[in-house]
Amino acid sequence: MKWIGQHIWSFISRFRNDVYMEDISTGTIASGGNLGLDSNNKIVKANEASGDITGVTITTDSGGGSAASDTGGSADFSILGASGVDVTNSGATITARAVPGEIDHDSLLNFDANEHFTQANITTVGTIGTGVWNGTAIATDQQKHLAYFEFKGYGTSDGTNYEMLEEMTDANAPFEHNTSTGSDGLTAQTIQTVMRSGGVVMPHSGTLKKFTGWVTSAGSGTVNIALFKFTPTDDSVGNLTPVRLVNEQTTASGNAIMNSFSETSSFDAGFTAGDIIYPAVLGISSKALYYNSMLEVEWS
Questions:
Q1: Burial class (CB within 10 angstroms; exposed 0-12, middle 13-18, buried 19+) of 27
Q2: Which residues neighbour 13 within 8 Å (Cβ) at sequence distance 6 or greater?
Q3: Does the CA dihedral 154-159-164-167 come out positive or negative?
Q4: 256 Ramachandran zone, left/alpha/beta (phi>0; psi -120 to 50)
Q5: Residue 106: enclosing H or E segment and its boundaries?
Q6: Which of these, 126, 156, 205, 245, has the minimum number of CB atoms within 10 Å of its CB?
Q7: What is the mean pLDDT of residues 23-50?
Q8: pLDDT at 176
Q9: Residue ranges per domain, the chain?
Q10: pTM over cut 0.70
Q11: Strand pairing partners for 263?
């Protein structure tokens, strides 16, 4: 039976078998539609779970990166992990997370080679003892093996001789410099003086890298701030002759004006493990001076 013409049907129709359509025009399925025709023009319902995706674009967040896109049919794509990044899938959820144990160590320590330290590799050494320098190693740089020691104090110079730390048996220790060590600072000292005046014992051999600080002094003239070392020997008697490591000069401008000094190259010698480093000053005759300094060393 063939019906020619238009027939408007106002009732609900149900078909128990397949329905075929002829002379079907091409067009766009309306939003929400899920019916279509197969190759024989039979009406079929699309299986959404297995149907092709016509195009997918994965965009990135504000952090940057490139977008993934596939507009050629099934839109197959992969989300891949890498060293330090793990990707897992659970149903429709894809999770990417960092794996710290797989992160390249060099990337964590990627910093300017000229920098001395970063937050990642600073270790506080702690207090070594007490004294004019407060006996504190500020920090150690594990990348360049640097350590820092503070030296500070005061004295009233005779204008001729270097004066090292007052012996700790004196009430003015540990900040006062009032033990003469000669015009060049190299006069040998007794074991008692070496021990009682303190100093910083070096735990490793190394070299001086930088000596910097500030000075104030009454009067006007040259002020010397120097560092020396003693090299003790086990079970040995006799005086110890010091070795000068660095001497910094600055011209005083009065006790209300700070004068700076800094040295990064003119060091007379390095040091070995067990050496005791200590400060000595030579200032203007009968004029009080005060200084605060920092020594940077590099372990061998």
A1: exposed
A2: none
A3: negative
A4: alpha
A5: helix 105-108
A6: 126
A7: 66
A8: 93
A9: 18-59, 123-299
A10: no
A11: 211
